[in-house]
Specification:
The protein has 138 residues and is an alpha/beta fold. The chain has one domain: Rossmann fold, CATH 3.40.50. Helix content is 54%, strand content 12%. It contains eight helices and four strands; from the N terminus they run βααβαααβααβα. The protein has a four-stranded parallel beta sheet with strand order 3-2-1-4, with helices on both faces. The longest helix has 14 residues. It is globular, with a radius of gyration of 15 Å.
């Protein structure tokens, strides 16, 4: 497993943006220097929940956008089309009973042999029950 390769899911992105800074490195604390990746699907989720994020953060739009810029500049986005079909099938098998929307993140984790950063405890429990234990813990 590539310990320096961390796949960031939407709830981590939202958490970082909620503070208005969008700084992933600040979220993990000192001493961590992994490379952060995300599937392009993250853009869809950010757009889908934009209003909710604005309300929850209570930040002026300019600050929220600055945080978004910081967040996006720290992520390397991977085109989901580059992930092999077999990897998608395995990720779907792992996610389907809990949340199919997490399939892209799990597929990318498998594809890059990285660690998955999520704070969705229900998802973590379900994935562990199916044999997936590639989590980034801070």
């Amino acid at each position: 497993m590539n310990g320096d390769c961390v796949i960031v899911d939407a709830n981590i992105a939202f958490k970082c943006l909620h503070s208005g800074r969008g700084d992933l490195r600040e979220c993990i604390g000192p001493g961590g220097h992994p490379k952060f990746f995300s599937p392009r699907f993250l853009f869809v989720e950010l757009f889908k929940h934009k209003e909710r994020l604005e309300r929850a953060s209570g930040l002026p739009e300019t600050e929220l956008l600055a945080g978004l810029h910081t967040l996006l500049s720290q992520l390397e986005f991977i085109n989901e089309a580059n992930i092999p079909v077999g990897t998608w099938v395995e990720a779907y098998r792992l996610c389907k009973a809990t949340d199919e929307n997490d399939t892209a993140y799990v597929a990318l984790t498998l594809h890059l042999d990285g660690r998955f950063w999520t704070e969705d405890n229900e998802l973590k429990v379900a994935l562990r029950a199916r044999g997936f234990d590639r989590f980034f813990e801070q």
